[in-house]
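Anyone? Bumping this.
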Amino acid sequence: MLPFKTLITIDESSTIAVYRQIADCLIVLITDGVIQPGTFLPSTREMAALLDKHRNTIVAAYEDLITQDWIETLPRVGIRVSIHLPLIKPRSFQEGGKNQTYSSPAKFNFKHIPGPEEQNFQLKRTSIIVNDGFPDADLAPFDSMLREYRKLMQGSSLKVLMSLKDFGGTKALKNSTVNFLNDSRGLNISTENLLITRGAQMAIYLAAGMILKPGDHVLVSDPSYYIADEVFRQMGANLIRIPVDEHGMDIEEVENALKSTKISLLYIIPHHHHPTTVTMSQQRRILLLELIRSYQLPVIEDDYDYDFHYSNSPVLPLASSAHDSNVLYIGSFTKLLAPSCRIGYLIGPANFITQATNLKRLIDLRGDTMMEEALSVIIDSGELDRHIKKSKKVYNERCDQASLMIADRLAHAVDFTKPQGGLALWLKFKATYPLGEVIAKARTSGLLFTGATYYEGAAQKHNGMRFGFASLKESEMQRAVDILRKITI
Amino acid sequence: MLPFKTLITIDESSTIAVYRQIADCLIVLITDGVIQPGTFLPSTREMAALLDKHRNTIVAAYEDLITQDWIETLPRVGIRVSIHLPLIKPRSFQEGGKNQTYSSPAKFNFKHIPGPEEQNFQLKRTSIIVNDGFPDADLAPFDSMLREYRKLMQGSSLKVLMSLKDFGGTKALKNSTVNFLNDSRGLNISTENLLITRGAQMAIYLAAGMILKPGDHVLVSDPSYYIADEVFRQMGANLIRIPVDEHGMDIEEVENALKSTKISLLYIIPHHHHPTTVTMSQQRRILLLELIRSYQLPVIEDDYDYDFHYSNSPVLPLASSAHDSNVLYIGSFTKLLAPSCRIGYLIGPANFITQATNLKRLIDLRGDTMMEEALSVIIDSGELDRHIKKSKKVYNERCDQASLMIADRLAHAVDFTKPQGGLALWLKFKATYPLGEVIAKARTSGLLFTGATYYEGAAQKHNGMRFGFASLKESEMQRAVDILRKITI
């Protein structure tokens, strides 16, 4: 007889019932070929004695295996492994009868995609995390969200909404978003121009995925938002980089590229450019719109930080000017709420949005109905506008504070221009301070930079990094700047 | 002088400040070439009179335009449109000076992707919606989620978590999920084998996206989950359909396909197959595992409904047997919670999961940290297990009720086999009842089927439809069956 006592391992502390553990072990022994089809098993009484368990436990295990066709009862003869099972070549016994199902790496072919290294940073109470421009979660209107969640739970509409197919956002949120965008951004859209997504990132992915084919050429800025770069690359596109100066993307270079190459897409962040925070000048904006119309050039306009503009009114997006339905406009509520509330949007011509909604469904079948409905109420009640106003005041102050501190204490190492808006500064370190070293030293001093535009690609040569001031209290900012000073002086 | 009174339209009821409306209209007039660079504008006093507004309003509008470089002041001369702006060919005046920015369809090339038609179904209080197998939102543990949300908001850890990079799920949820899956499914995985996604749909998209190239061949069942079919098609793959009978996918046909064609991926739903609800026999399971090992065949095992099994213990997944790191295992908490809580997972070898996590980041930068942390607590406290037990009892009863009613009242029109588990029945209508007609007639009687496996593709020939019983109270079920009887008798 097989050494069942050894082969069948039972963990009394497990949350799995013992009879299930026994049945599972027997299945593994059968599928591994250790017990062949037709082999008789010990009777329930014998097995109970072997394993030192109650007989009823073994009866339950065997019954389970019988209903699943693993074993069969021959009346007055015994219980055997089903002879209908195919014969299996026995393989070596495995430790404890358990398969190490994923112990070896995958050997089939799959893509390799660059990404950040997971950082083993020991977070302490004194650690400071500087991101690349997140809102302050302490300001987030979580309370209002929870209040709306509770109301929704008590009503009956949520259940119906969750039963219906999702066409890229609930109707209520689509209506609220259309009003919000038309009012704040001078757009002139209706719900058929709008798709609700999981943050701006998914909107970029969907817009590009609808347009790009392998071998296509995409214009991006230099430097550009590195995760968008990687999206286009993964779709097989070739990136053509256009320099960015203090007036934004160089439009003459865009025109040169259009003249010499078939361009399938332009990705641009005209307002608070990522990472450099530059806002494009009106002159270039007008020239670009001319190019868009005359070349009928599809454009993704990423306007992730529109709502936080301090020095004057924000600059209206390209999407609100005449672009002949070529500009796809992307933004997000995430920066207005909290990093976990990932609701973004993609705006475009209706025929495009219908198809993008179908693509979205293949990736993400439904949105978060509850969050979408709650956000809709918060927009419609004017609460979002009040929240933006309040946050803008705080962030404006923090922008001033950070700019003053850095100008005062880090001028020897860092160049930067105070931005007109947004949630981050773009710090260009002088060549004598290679960014990799600065970041590594900062880490050992308890300062972690998570907004890594530096870990790869074209931004590296700029030796620049985003310093997200918006989520830092003044004392945290002070400590972060102190650490940077200490390691650069 | 231009007819500013006509060109500048002001909406007093708008939430946009009047000065902003005036500034925005002027920008449009400039970018549209109606007002050319160098043109002098009326003085603030004149403009105030023209538009019948207070002079301070015009001053504010002009100041806004000056800081944005649209116009410039020549001391003692006047205010003109900046001569640094490029000359623009005037285009025809647009109604009210507003651009219909998205009034024309997109003319650039983009993909066309099949999807459902948005249905203009007039929901009434008496309407019944039958989905393709959703959980009942009335049972969802929303209260517990809100309780945990509130606790998280009061703590300090959430802010830190939201500041860190997301590596496919919070650490807490990864740990909880690993324990939950190892306990319930006989897996033997650690967190490096796990990626948290937005529902099972995103897991399918990511797994397939990592593996498939245009022209690849994928084995799917006939019929299969139609949205997965579409995912593979969008990636340029060719589908080879393998018949499904009452024992599951025909493994001999799988072997034939493997012998004759280079197969890049097998997509299979061995447990409560979608749409047919069949569970694969042990014999086929063992044969399939043999094929997987000998051909080193990458497999996506979709186990979306594992936790609801009524007749005996659920059948362990392929992923828990010896598959030589070839099986990617997919599931979701959505069916355990509510349709809006879209948290799913992809399980695979560690080297594959690292790369899939990088791909996920390109599509969906971060998960919902708050929901992930709350779910983790609910798993760890045993509350999820209790919730599953409770729901399973309800759904088991509803499965019995629905099966009895349909056998009793619809036998003339419908064939079906009561499933061993899951949240839906697979109703095969006899040929004399074409499904399209049945569904259309049902709609006019107030019965809406949203689980449309029928609207396209290979499933159509099966004339079958999923009947999601789990979210229906007995009286609703009764009414749904009555309507189906009335339109088929």
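Late reply, but here is one note on the structure posted above: Residues 128-134+386-488 of chain A form a domain with the Aspartate Aminotransferase, domain 1 fold (CATH 3.90.1150.10).
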